[in-house]
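From the shared-data thread, chain only:
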Amino acid sequence: MGPLQLSSVRNPREAGMDRDRLSLIDRILEKEIEAGSIPGAVVLIARKGKIVKHQAYGQAMEEPTRREMTTDTIFDLASLTKVVVTVPLALLLTEHGAWRLEDPITRFLPPLKWGRGVSIHHLLTHTAGLPPWAALFSLAKNREEVLELLTSERWPVATPICAPGERVIYSDLGYIILGLAIEKITGKDLAALGREWIFSPLQMQDTMFNPPESLATRIAPTEDDPKRGGVLVGTVHDENAWALGGVSGHAGLFATANDLAIYAQMLLNGGHYGNKRVLSSRSVELMVSPQTEGLNERRGLGWLLQGESTVTAGDLLSELAFGHTGFTGTSLWIDPRNDLIVALLTNRVHPSRERGKGEISRIRALINDISVGAIVDE
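Structure, as tokens:
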């Protein structure tokens, strides 16, 4: 079978799914919108290359004016940036012979205390021992100052939490560093590389860093941040990514549900989409296979793998499923065994990051479980 391209179907039965079961998603999201957990959402469910549900709910914007959510709304993906940009670029550099995953990061960036014994693989799998986060934006005002900070002895997290490879500690810092290394090796920024190597070949036309003002009416706003001029529309929510000029390896990407589904289908196809090859099948296999055996969390390269501690995955996705979430309220789960894609995009941080904080994980899990429960041709 050739690489599938996504197409929409009127009847979910064409993809072996039940319309009434899928409609249970409507009740969940309408209830959560009414309860104030999220302002709105876009859901896209695809199976066997067929989009069986692509629907918008609620409001994209509530403040300062109201604007309805639409299926082509563009979202700040937050940490989905890691697996849609940084991980595939890292593997493409491996395919190009630019580095090996076991290479030490100090081969590509200045030798610092935190980098001793840390490999590209450690950074990709969140096993470098780095802390989850640091307020780099409070120590540096712009991209040049952040870059200087990251490659100087003023780096605020020079002491790792644990030795490399000892345990999984989800770290934005590790992916910021990966992004910088990728940019140094290629001489291009992540925005240009993502466009050239991933988005353009896949025709992901609404996927980008730093979306232009002309797209403002399609972008789901995030937080009301007085320090940055009020409600953020098209400005990255993550403060460290913002300090880096909106382009970073850990956050900054904007996209639609449809573009995310194209990317997901490429992975299900083993790196191909239509007549384009983006990644080798071996790279995809490596990306989504267990890389942290015996440690505290099941991860591939970047991706979270279905397991007992995977609260956002739900209960019914198969053991082959992999996914990722974003702080702004986004998530993408892919289940190869069921040939299933579940994209749930919300801007739950609008107008405050405290909104929906305790509910979003449960909402994600419920949507995933309903999607699997709607499969009727097993």
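The first strand starts at residue 7 and ends at 8.
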